[in-house]
Specification:
- There is one protein chain.
- The chain is built from 15 helices and 25 strands.
- By secondary structure, the protein is an alpha/beta fold.
- Strand 11, helix 10 and strand 12 form a beta-alpha-beta unit.
- Helix 2 packs across helix 6 and helix 10 packs across helix 11.
- The structure holds methylmalonyl-coenzyme A and adenosine monophosphate (AMP).
- The site of methylmalonyl-coenzyme A has 22 residues, from helix 8 and strand 13.
- Adenosine monophosphate binds next to strand 13, strand 19 and strand 20.
């Protein structure tokens, strides 16, 4: 039934119909057959709403099996899935909907009144965390069965927005084959089989939780412990009997804080995978000492899916992101020159995983994607004599907070727009829980303005994870002789703002 649809055909092939696809707290188990039957009904609803091949389906909903079915149903109907972080404010969502002009928008029932005016001519449905809402009502009213729309390897399957160094977010266009090829490689590289039970506690609006975790599970026909979000208790409860966990480094540091994480509890586990942000070598070592397992670290991007991974069978080297995945080529560049082995430069990648460009931004695409297919990642690293890649920094001015990316420019623009502010500089500093935390150095024109005033002004403008965890007022920003703000100096000045030795004191307050 899905033969002509490149991605749907592959995602549906491995799971045995009667096998449980997902167990979830407080909701019934769901089989592979039920997963796809529900997805077919949703595909029918989307087609009935006028969705044509290539039309976008913008989705800002809580994590649920129905949300996964909406992803699958969109692909089946020939649409382009556009997931949005649930933390985004109305102002942020407005930008995405205006830019992507979706045919269908799906939002949480609690935000319907706020999102409806932003949806324009799109058809609006609601979907709640418990699966309720107008989407499910429409789906239940349909007969099961749907003839998947014909879509080929190069047709778009998804657009995921990623923030820009300058200006607004860019929509990374991912084709059916971008997604299928990468997930197939990961399934094989990480040895996923139907016997696996993967603990899924990541959000499903980003590459990590949606494409790495979900697609790999579907392509291997394995089972999920499908948790609504990260919760150390729920993960530790799920661990006995499970075989794999995928998470950002904050997952691992938080689990290490819990004395119930033991070698015995992890006895059935075969694989702990970390990515999206740098994993400290110290975390890697502490994890091995506690559980006997060496965390497998991998490296990816929204634009490329996964690029490198430490090996399943070979040596997993702490502090490295492993070797290029099969089919992915990686080189280290200084401008247009490839540097010698061992030298630091900008990482570029090429392969079937690399995206199709940024949605309606040909100039931005041309800046980062070379005509011969090499993508300039903006990450800096080197390759050692054994082919292992180490990431040493980012050419792009980006903060990764708990696995979410924040571009300082976006935060600075919002702060600078507040009355009484002269200028601001936003940087990331070490944070014991989140890896890095966003902080702002601010110069006031109006001395009466307080940090709380700034926080209040940002409240409805920026997603919470982008809002500064601390605000410091300065008489002027440090600048070099060229007049450029010295962010490195700010990072150094505030490096100890969040005490690394006391994991509890992560809230130094916004003031002074
Ligand atoms: C939540 N908060 C945060 C973050 N998450 N603040 C900064 N950074 C964050 N990441 C804030 C909330 O707004 C709230 O603020 C307070 O923290 C508690 O919220 P809560 O929802 O309870 O947070 P949590 O459950 O503790 O979440 C922390 C988390 C979560 C588990 C680290 O952020 C998470 O699941 N991160 C994973 C992100 C991810 O999937 N990244 C992959 C991107 P207040 O109290 O003030 O209201 S894909 C990618 O990067 C590439 C492609 C790759 O390689 O994978
Ligand atoms: P995103 O905007 O979600 O596409 O984030 C991609 C970025 O996350 C990459 O360009 C890297 O800077 C970073 N990243 C992902 N995985 C790792 C990792 N294992 N180590 C260090 N940085 C990583």
């Amino acid at each position: 039934m899905y033969d002509g649809n490149h991605l749907a055909h592959r995602l549906a092939a491995a799971g045995a119909p009667d096998k449980v696809f997902a167990t979830q707290p407080a909701r019934p188990d769901i089989t592979y057959a039920a997963l796809f039957e529900g997805a077919e009904r949703i595909a029918g609803v989307l087609a009935g709403a006028g969705l044509a091949a290539g039309d976008r389906v913008a989705v800002q909903v809580e994590k649920s099996i129905e949300a996964l079915q909406l992803y699958l149903g969109t692909v089946m109907a020939g649409g382009v899935f556009l997931p949005l972080n649930t933390a985004y404010t109305g102002a942020e969502v407005d930008y995405f909907l205006t830019d992507a002009t979706p045919r269908v928008v799906v939002c949480d029932p609690a935000r319907e009144a706020e999102i409806a005016p932003l949806a324009g001519n799109a058809r609006l449905f609601t979907l709640g965390a418990d699966g309720s809402g107008t989407l499910s009502q429409a789906a239940e009213a349909r007969e099961p069965g749907f003839e998947a729309a014909a879509r080929g390897a190069d047709d778009l399957a998804a657009i995921l927005y990623t923030s820009g160094t300058t200006g607004r977010s860019k929509g990374a266009m991912l084709s059916h084959a971008n997604l299928s090829s990468n997930s197939e490689v990961l399934r094989d590289f990480w040895r996923f089989t139907p016997d696996d039970v993967l603990i899924h506690a990541l959000p499903i609006f980003h590459t990590h939780g949606l494409f790495v975790a979900t697609n790999v599970a579907l392509l291997s026909g394995c089972a999920l412990h499908f948790l609504p979000k990260f919760d150390a208790d729920a993960i530790l409860d799920a661990m006995p009997g499970a075989t794999a966990l995928m998470g950002v480094p904050t997952f691992y540091t938080r689990l290490l804080d819990d004395p119930r994480l033991t070698r015995e509890r992890a006895a059935s586990m075969r694989l702990f995978i970390s990515g999206s942000a740098p994993l400290l070598a110290a975390t890697h070592e502490a994890w091995e000492a506690r559980t006997g397992h060496r965390i497998l670290e991998r490296y990816g991007m929204t634009e490329t899916n996964m690029n490198t991974s430490n090996p399943h069978d070979g040596e997993r080297r702490a502090g490295t992101v492993g070797v290029p995945l099969p089919g992915v080529k990686l080189r280290i560049m200084d401008g247009d020159r490839e540097v010698a082995q061992g030298e630091i430069g900008v990482i570029e990648v090429r392969g079937p995983n690399v995206f199709q460009g940024y949605w309606q931004m040909p100039e931005k695409t041309a800046e980062e994607l070379r005509p011969d297919g090499w993508f300039i990642t903006g990450d800096q690293g080197f390759i050692d004599a054994d082919g292992y890649v180490t990431i040493v920094g980012r050419a792009k001015d980006m903060v990764i907070s708990g696995g979410f990316n924040v571009y300082p420019k976006e935060v600075e623009t919002e702060i600078d727009a507040i009355d009484g502010i002269s200028e601001s500089a936003v940087v990331g500093v070490p944070h014991p829980d989140l890896g890095e935390a966003v902080i702002a150095a601010v110069v006031r024109a109006d001395a009466r303005l307080t940090a709380d005033d700034i926080a209040a002004a940002l409240e409805n403008r920026l997603a919470r994870f982008k809002q500064p965890k601390a605000i410091r007022f300065l008489p002027e920003l440090p600048r070099n002789t060229m007049g450029k703000v010295q962010k490195a100096a700010l990072r150094a000045d505030y490096a100890d703002l969040f005490d690394r030795s006391d994991r509890g004191s992560t809230q130094p307050g916004r003031g002074k």
